[in-house]
Specification:
This protein is mainly alpha-helical and about 260 residues long. About 85% of the residues lie in helices and about 0% in strands. It contains 11 helices and no strands.
Amino acid sequence: MRGRSLLDSRLLCGAAGVAGLFCVAELAGRTGLIDPVVFPLASTIAGRAAALAADGEFLADVASTLGAWAAGLLLTVLVAVPAGFALGTLPRVEAALRPILEFLRPIPSVALIPLALLLFSDRFEMKIAVIVYAASWPVLINTMYGLKDVDPVAKETLRSFGFGPLAVLWRVSLPSTAPFIATGVRLAAAVALILAVSAELLAGGASGIGTFIIEAGSSPDALEYIVAATIWAGAIGVLSNLLFTLVERRLFHWHLARTEGAR
């Protein structure tokens, strides 16, 4: 109950912040502090964003981006979670691969898009590839971190009753690591959306929010369309994060209570 009231409070504060920013931006345009010719009024952009919500072409582009986002995120979980368990439970494997991981992790994912274009002729497959590469890191690292938080006494207790490594992994390690994996997936969802739109912006394609933004650049009201589409991309990111947060709190409320108790 306390966690839900805290979430509601944060939502209210966030809504107040957005409303305040809108008012300041509108006031800056109305008073001439920002030239409306250079940058449209906030109310104009809001109206354009509302119009896009009923635009079938734009909605199709949104669906295309979300399709790549969902497929990439699902593949990320299927790859990164088992990899995290392997690295977290096999110290020798983790020690052997850590130099490679530390080399790959800092490489900007957007910088790999030209390479992905050369490797994948299909634009959808290219988007999936860069999404999986970028989004795997938070899931992988959180899975490994979660394994270190598993109670060693619980594992030893099961071993003393004759349970094998797989049984211990399934009955103790996986349930204890699940909240950390959920946090990693939530973080990966935001990364996946960023890479999906970025790939569309840099590589083009038949559809997608990024493609819509590129094509909007040649329209008479280019800036209005570009900013409105960007706002929708941000709104989708906020909504997906909120959804994952609610699911995370619903499924792992016991972990949240334990964390708050430790504080």
